[in-house]
Design a protein that fits this description.
The structure is a single chain. The protein is an alpha/beta fold and 267 residues long. It has helices at 21-32, 44-54, 68-82, 105-133, 154-174, 192-198, 203-208, 217-228, 240-251, 253-260; strands spanning 12-16, 36-41, 58-62, 87-90, 136-141, 179-184, 235-236. 41% of the residues are buried. The structure holds NADP nicotinamide-adenine-dinucleotide phosphate. NADP nicotinamide-adenine-dinucleotide phosphate is lined by residues 17, 19-23, 41-43, 46, 64-66, 91-95, 114-115, 118, 141, 143, 186, 188-189, 191-194.
Length: 267
């Protein structure tokens, strides 16, 4: 039986959501590995700060992943300019915790539009180019909250479960074109987005998370880069504790349900 091939090193990568947090750490690692990297996000200020950190191996474009026409236009323009990327990563997304009846309506639609539909728009824009080029890799971003429903995260969890379902179906669909799809499932990670998320966490959610390990964005990026060296493997779960949790979610659902329940009497 032949062994899975080692993918060639990344030459050109697009990182949507690459101006901060996990996406920026991934972009940094890719630039350090010699790749030409284009980071994409909305804010010109964040992109300028990211470019100063990334140095001459990087470029930036402003785009909102919730706008499918804008995403398609920027992808087409970049392909004309720098060629078809071998790697496309999308980390653009956010979490707004809160109990369902208290979540602002804008954040309900905002999380679906950014986390789920934003991922769809990016993949839809890049797939024809990867197919025409004979292959490439797409990395989408879910979360540990995409593996198990977490109280206080109803809508966020729904978007991140959605990202996994979408990515699994896409992976099977584009395999004949030589395109690989992986989905990153980070645990809590110290990023600007996580700091903002913490401002909205109900006290019970904060208390439940006291014993949960938190990773750095660099550790998450390193886990992804290790996973990219293996052709096989779909879910990328950074951190030993998170991998154990992922196994428990799959094989010990009753135990996990007890651990993840909101405290208080069942009525
Ligand atoms: N940090 C965690 O604990 C954690 C845990 C599990 C999963 N995740 C997931 O990992 C991903 C990255 O999280 P993070 O903590 O690194 O977030 P972050 O620090 O807030 O960075 C998010 C990046 O996405 C960009 N972005 C946000 N909305 C966008 C939009 N509509 N269009 C284009 N770009 C957009 C942001 O730039 P602009 O604001 O300039 O657009 C920024 O570059 C998210 O999908 C998140 O759900 C994070």
């Amino acid at each position: 039986m032949s062994r899975p091939q080692r993918p060639t090193p990344v030459r050109t990568a697009l990182v949507f959501g690459g101006s901060e947090g996990i996406g920026l750490a991934i972009a940094e690692r890719l630039v350090a590995g010699g790749a030409r990297v284009v980071v994409l996000s909305r804010s010109e200020d964040k992109l300028a700060t990211a470019l100063a950190r990334l140095g001459p191996g990087a470029d930036a474009r402003s785009v909102d992943v919730t706008d499918p026409a804008a995403v398609a236009a920027v992808v087409d323009a970049l392909v004309a300019e720098v060629g078809v990327p071998d790697l496309v990563v999308t980390t653009a997304g956010y979490a707004r915790p809160g109990y369902l009846d208290e979540l602002p309506a804008d954040d309900i639609t905002g999380m679906v539009a950014t986390n789920l539909l934003g991922t769809v728009h990016v993949c839809r824009a890049v797939v024809p180019h990867l197919r025409a080029a004979g292959g490439g890799t797409i990395v989408t971003t879910s979360s540990m909250a995409g593996l198990a429903g977490v109280f206080g995260y109803t809508v966020y969890s729904a978007t991140k479960f959605g990202v996994i379902g979408f990515s699994e179906a896409l992976r099977r669909e584009v395999r004949p074109y030589g395109v690989t799809v992986k989905v990153l499932c980070p645990p809590n990670t110290l990023t600007p987005g996580f700091a903002e998320e913490n401002r909205h966490k109900p006290a019970e959610v904060l208390a439940a998370e006291e014993s949960v390990a938190t990773l750095t964005p660099e550790a998450v990026a390193d886990a992804l880069l290790r996973a990219l060296r293996r052709r096989r493997g779909f879910l990328v779960v950074p951190g030993r504790d998170s991998r154990l949790a992922a196994v428990a979610i799959r094989y010990l659902p009753v135990v996990v349900d007890r651990a993840l329940r909101r405290p208080g009497p069942a009525t």
